[in-house]
């Protein structure tokens, strides 16, 4: 197949959706498909030969917020978009914004098979303005994007069963919703080196994710501050985002200063091998691939049980869940694992084994099948 990936952003390393797109593109090429990317990129030369570059659409007053979240809108240059679509056998749209809307309209006009995805929860958008729990607003946005974008599609990639169920709950009628994990690279495997690492004898607690309101790194810092073991715990936050300076300031209250960093995949795997416990405190999450990668390496997770988070499905024991937003409950769970460290090896193996069902290889095969089904469907529709 000749597959076109259309996404407002593609080269960002701090945006989970783009990282997923990069991995799928690489694997599809390895499976013999021709894959090109339509995205925004202002600089020359282009980082990839097989791409169509659109200019960045500036949004006055919001450019800094977008940049700190690893995002930027692409301009809807229909001449370039038309050229990209004309090349493809099928077009996959990663997001649901104006550029992808233009792709949708041109695919329909040009009788081209198309698929799309639902990676961005409405709560992720409203959380940027501290409105993440305003239910009527989130419901209105779900309905708006259905009318604006998704009602014109047939095939939708949902990164989890939770996200699929949410779309059904919000009335996304007539869609073929495919629950396909974004997938974990085979590089994330169980590994526990016996020697001391960069953190010495400290009990290391890790969270991976964008530093933003809905991810709740602030909750983790406060839980450790309250713990009677705080002087023995080293927090590590892997990621970047708009709240970095605020979280660094909050972390100064801890007896052991947290480490904040943005790491390559290889560096992150090395850090995970020296970590004792993983926390995913996010209030809202469509999948949280970072959490799966963590327990694939054998890290025991403690996960928020938020109704708006798919991540809670990964818990294998009640000791891996805490009440969403409850600092005291999170503190108690961390202290329980600290005091029962002899149980960690058993649960590490269980979690690493459970991660095998989310391997990237399997996800790409399911995604490939969705693309093939879309080609068959639209060829019949336009015959």
Mean of residue pLDDT values? 93
Portion of residues in beta strands equals 15-25%
Unreliably modeled segments? none
Strand order of the largest sheet: 3-2-1-6-7-8-9
Our Rg estimate from Cα atoms comes to: 21 Å
Q: Please identify the structural class as seen in this structure.
A: alpha/beta
Shape: globular
Terminal CA distance: 19 Å
Which H/E pattern describes the elements?
A: EHEEEHEHEHEHHEHEEHEHEHEHEEHHH
**Structure annotation, total helices:** 14
* Biggest sheet features: 7 strands, parallel
Helix content: 25-40%
Number-wise, the strands total 15
Could you name the key traits of this structure?
single chain, 383 residues, alpha/beta, 7-stranded parallel beta sheet, 6-stranded parallel beta sheet, 14 helices, 15 strands, globular
Explain the overall architecture.
With 383 residues, the protein is an alpha/beta fold. The chain contains 14 helices and 15 strands. β8, α7 (161-169) and β9 form a beta-alpha-beta unit. α1 packs across α14, α3 (78-87) packs across α4 (98-110) and α8 (217-226) crosses α12. The model has no long low-confidence stretch (mean pLDDT 93).
């Amino acid at each position: 197949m000749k597959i076109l990936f259309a996404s407002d952003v593609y080269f960002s390393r701090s945006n989970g959706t783009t990282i997923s797109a990069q991995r799928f593109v690489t694997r599809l090429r390895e499976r013999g498909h021709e894959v090109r990317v339509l995205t925004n990129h202002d600089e020359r030369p282009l980082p990839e030969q097989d791409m169509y570059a659109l200019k960045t659409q500036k949004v006055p007053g919001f450019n800094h917020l977008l940049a700190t979240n690893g995002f930027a809108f692409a301009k809807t240059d229909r001449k370039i978009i038309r050229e990209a679509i004309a090349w493809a056998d099928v077009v996959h749209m990663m997001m649901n914004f104006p550029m992808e809307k233009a792709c949708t309209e041109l695919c329909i006009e040009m009788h081209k098979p198309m698929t799309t995805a639902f990676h961005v929860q409405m709560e992720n958008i409203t959380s940027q303005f501290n409105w993440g729990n305003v239910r009527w607003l989130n419901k209105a946005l779900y309905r708006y994007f259905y009318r604006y974008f998704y009602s014109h599609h047939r095939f939708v990639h949902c990164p989890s069963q939770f996200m699929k169920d949410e779309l059904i709950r919000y009335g996304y009628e007539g869609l073929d919703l495919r629950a396909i994990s974004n997938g974990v690279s085979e590089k994330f495997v169980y590994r526990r080196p016996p020697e001391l690492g960069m953190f010495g004898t400290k009990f290391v607690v890790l969270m991976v994710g964008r530093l933003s309101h809905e991810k709740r790194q602030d909750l983790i810092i406060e839980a450790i501050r309250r713990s009677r073991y705080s002087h023995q715990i080293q927090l590590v936050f892997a990621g970047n985002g708009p709240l970095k300076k605020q979280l660094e300031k909050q972390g100064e209250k801890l007896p052991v200063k947290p480490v904040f960093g943005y790491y390559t995949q290889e560096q992150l795997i090395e850090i995970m091998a020296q970590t004792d416990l993983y926390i995913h405190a996010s209030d809202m999450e469509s999948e949280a691939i970072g959490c799966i990668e963590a327990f694939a390496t054998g890290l025991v997770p403690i996960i928020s049980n938020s109704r708006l988070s798919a991540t809670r499905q990964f818990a294998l024991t009640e000791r891996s869940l805490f009440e969403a937003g409850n600092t005291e409950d999170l503190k108690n769970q961390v202290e329980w694992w600290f005091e029962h460290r002899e149980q960690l090896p058993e649960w590490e193996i269980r979690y690493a084994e459970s991660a095998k069902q989310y391997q990237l290889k399997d996800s790409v095969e399911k995604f490939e099948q969705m693309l093939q089904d879309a080609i068959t469907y639209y060829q019949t529709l336009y015959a």
